[in-house]
Amino acid sequence: MIPNVTKEIIDLGDGRSISIETGKLAKQADGSVVVQMGNAMLLATVVSARTASPGIDFLPLTLDYREKFAAAGRFPGGFFKREARPSDGEVLTMRLVDRVLRPLFPKDYHAETQVMIQLMSHDEEVMPDALAGLAASAALALSDIPFATLISEVRVARLNGQFIINPSKAQLAESDIDMMIGASMDSIAMVEGEMKEISEAEMIEAIKFAHEAIKVQIAAQERLQAAVGKKEVRTYEQERSDDAVLAKVKELAYDKYFAIASEGSAKHERSEKFAGVKEEVKASFTDEELLENGDLISKYLNKVNKEAVRNVILDNGTRLDGRKTNEIRPIWCEVDYLPSTHGSALFTRGETQALATVTLGTSREANIIDRPTDQGEERFYLHYNFPPFSTGEAKPLRGTSRREVGHGNLAQRALKNMLPAEVPYTVRVVSEVLESNGSSSMATVCAGTLALMDAGIQMIRPVSGIAMGLISDDATGRWAVLSDILGDEDHLGDMDFKVTGTSEGITACQMDIKISGLKYEIMEQALNQAREGRLHILGKLTEVIDTPREDVKRHAPKIIKVTIPGAFIGALIGPGGKVIQELQKASGTTIVINEVDEQGEVEILGTSPEGIQMVLNKIDSIIFKPQVGETYSVKVIKMLDFGAVVEYLDAPGNEVLLHVSELDWARTENVSDVVNMGDVFDVKYIGIDPKTRKEKVSRKALMPRPPRDENYVPRERDDRPRDNDRGGYRDNRNGGGGRDNRGRDDRNSRDRGPREERRDDAPREPREPRNEDNGGEPQES
Fold first, then answer.
1. Which residues fall in the annotated binding site?
2. DSSP secondary-structure letter at 302?
3. Are strands 188-198 and 506-513 parallel, antiparallel or unpaired?
4. Which of 86, 214, 172 is CA-nearest to residue 413?
5. What is the pLDDT of residues 428-452, one digit of tens each?
6. Less CB within 10 Å around the terminal CB: N or C of the chain?
7. Which residues lie below 8 Å from residue 409, measured CB to CB, with a gap of 6+?
8. Which pTM does this prediction carry?
9. Residue stretches of the annotated binding site for Mg(2+)
10. How far apart are CA 494 and CA 478, in angstroms?
11. ∠ CA(389), CA(318), CA(354), 5° rounding?
12. Strand 464-473 relative to strand 478-483, pairing
């Protein structure tokens, strides 16, 4: 049977478009769509159980996003050629969609629900995470699952002053804004991104631009929903309620909760008092009432507690710990806390504390990214750990949580643009959250800044961060923006808005809105109030360390980068890596060689200046190339019968033969008469000997040439003409004049003629004539 496919097109207005279709794939899911932009295709499905599991009082929602390697025509890396646990990039995309969708399900809907999104086809010009929210919402739109409103998400960038929706990776690399915005038709729900020190007004402008594009995408979902036929929302078992129990709980607990919230107490003290009220209220009910309505009583106690705390803030303008709405908790900081790390800092704000460390390494320690949609490496990365003891709890450790991945990524994005491009190291920051009562991710940003400056990383400007909250009352129209929120204020409030930046502007943000219809007026006040708090915190950081250390610490590794011609890479590595391994062992350094544009980029990392210099000397030696006519200092390292082997002092390990004939102008019988082992002197580089094809140097070329012996008589010049058969001196090889046909003259009969006088007038020793045949014995005269 041919499937009935329904499709809607979203025009992005610049020649690009997004299509949403349904009816062809995954028809047994409660809702399924394929979203396509260019060659990128995502399949989104949603399935929800018909009944809730007994005893579940929350929404067990699973939001899953996966990228298939086949989508990019690639094999999974590693030994097992199968996709396994999700990458950090996939986890971050899951969080982007989850944070928008989760608040939109009914609060009393507790059925197991799964939203699954997978990348089936990849396009290098399309970033699929910007389409995931649209795909998830469209799948829900076609289902009968209860859902408050349609949403969508877009990425907004700014290139050359112009905003772009869903830019390509190349465009994003040149942009000064990278923000993901999730929203419904009438309200912003989620904002996350990084910026290059933009203003609060510019951020609001980018959000508004993105919201307009989201409205167009939601309208397309509504058209698709209408074309397919909107399904009737399924019925589900409603949560039990009892107005009489609620009234009794409120009567017994509200005033007590209000009084405790007004005291301005610490977290554990306040928690104990709230727990005491809970026990008192429960004690006022009979055992039969507790058996019948115990779950309702607990739920209503939480509801009344939330109402009392919110009213304290709105009525009195004070908060759970006694602060005003714009007041920051006390801060103290310390750098260089850990003696053996390359950099460390402790940041404490109220009851939140983070210990950050910095480790410096070579490019070999870069974080390798291998995803179907992204390959490369990170030379700066940050890891965030949130152990259970930080909140005074004992919980099982089950690996890195999605929350830890998300908070670490936010802090990394906040800091990374403040590291100059010329930092030679791979830099890893690790934040250990030791105490938590609100905004540990922002404490991580502050601790990370201090640790980087302590490590000697020349940051462009220090970065601080703050978390903002919101308490609002639709009935009365009252609202209050809270600076530096507590954990309870995050839990009971309507907004969690984290903002990081420098003295010049915003570097990153993350905002989650729990209510609909958030006014831009409130968002603007939150941003302006956040700027005041951010600058206050920044002042506390710079009181401890205002500029980065001039250099890395004594025990931290120093890194030197040199570039060598590509032809010498093999010589530096050696056969089987022998040269570089022995050099690393002898120098106590780490050496990394990367080939870039036919050049070798050599990184030398070590704590010993002598060891680093040893490597530099070896590199100089390997790439040393003497120039013809230049003078070099050499040292004799080996004596031979026919000369001396000398080593260039400027390039240890480079040897050349100084032939006996080049030692001195006078005839040298023994090499040791002129030079000896260990002698140092200068030589001139002659070049390549055309006969031996070996390098040639000369000592005598730098010495004055002695005058000729006064008894020297030059050979008389014979100007007699020579004919073609060389008559008068030598006959041709075909006969005549004393030379036989083999070309040898008759030494016993030919008149040799007069000889020139010898310079020393000494009679010449008679030569024993030999037989004409090769190797013959001497013949008689």
1. 490, 496
2. H
3. antiparallel
4. 172
5. 999 999 999 988 999 999 999 999 9
6. N
7. 88, 92, 382
8. 0.82
9. 490, 496
10. 13
11. 25
12. antiparallel
